[in-house]
Amino acid sequence: MENKKILGFLPFNDETAVGVDFKYKQEDEEILNFFKNKALKCQREHVSRCFELKESEGIVGYLALSLCSINARKLKNPKNIGLFERPAIRIGQLIIDETKRGQGYGKCAINFVISIVRMMKWYLPCRLLVVDALNEKAQTFYEKAGFQMMEDRTLVFDLAPMLKQ
Ligand SMILES: CC(C)(COP(=O)(O)OP(=O)(O)OC[C@H]1O[C@@H](n2cnc3c(N)ncnc32)[C@H](O)[C@@H]1OP(=O)(O)O)[C@@H](O)C(=O)NCCC(=O)NCCS
User: Fold this and answer.
1) pLDDT digits (tens, 9 = 90+) for 10-31
2) Which residue in 87, 97, 100, 108 has the fewest CB atoms around it within 10 Å?
3) 137 CB less than 6 Å from ligand 1?
4) 59 CB within 6 A, ligand 1
5) What's the 122 CA to ligand 1 centre distance in angstroms?
6) Domains, the chain, with CATH or none
7) For the ranges 17-31, 43-57, 72-86, which has the lowest average pLDDT?
8) Residue 164, by phi and psi: left (phi above 0), alpha (psi -120 to 50) or beta?
9) Which pairs count as long-range contacts for 123-128, CB under 8 Å and 24+ apart, including other chains?
């Protein structure tokens, strides 16, 4: 699929008005409610960093990131380096406007997160991207992007090959 170009990932601020003209399915209401009611509070407390995905026609999605660590024993074939925890970025929430799905925007959001890790790699290490598999459709999306399902249903993407580049 062609990777559609997102013009910008705009950090949430006091002016952010979530949901204006945003089309979503009933089953995704909880995710949208996070962005409407909790995202800014979490951001002010430095717990999450949230973004609007903006392209020429308007807002096509929302993304929330946070930091976490994963115990290496959960991973397939972890290298023994004498430390159990692996630093990670958690994709807490990601939602694309229902009418814009299947056009590469979700993939763009993952590439954006990878670009952040590449930028910060000289200052802070991050080895994994992680996300909890909310439903089967989202699971397929993340697996296609290169994430692997762990036993506890966490989806994990190993950034090591990307960080060599
Ligand atoms: C999951 C979600 C973020 C994917 O975003 P998207 O913009 O539609 O995904 P993309 O267009 O970038 O798709 C990338 C690949 O995943 C595949 N894919 C995306 N959604 C899929 C689905 N529901 N079922 C199967 N494959 C899917 C696409 O076919 C594409 O494959 P390709 O590279 O082989 O062509 C979006 O469907 C969404 O907002 N879902 C509701 C909220 C949700 O479940 N969020 C995830 C939990 S945090």
Assistant:
1) 999 999 999 899 999 999 999 9
2) 87
3) yes
4) no
5) 31
6) 8-164 (3.40.630.30)
7) 72-86
8) alpha
9) 124/87, 125/87, 126/87, 126/88, 126/89, 126/159, 127/86, 127/87, 127/88, 127/158, 127/159, 127/160, 128/70, 128/86, 128/87, 128/88, 128/89, 128/156, 128/157, 128/158, 128/159
Phi, psi of 42 (to 5 degrees): -65, -35
pTM of the model: 0.94
The pLDDT of 144-164, averaged and rounded, is 93
**Is pLDDT above 80 for 39?**
yes
Residue owning the nearest CA to atom 5 of ligand 1: 106
**Cα–Cα distance between 94 and 61 in angstroms, integer?**
7
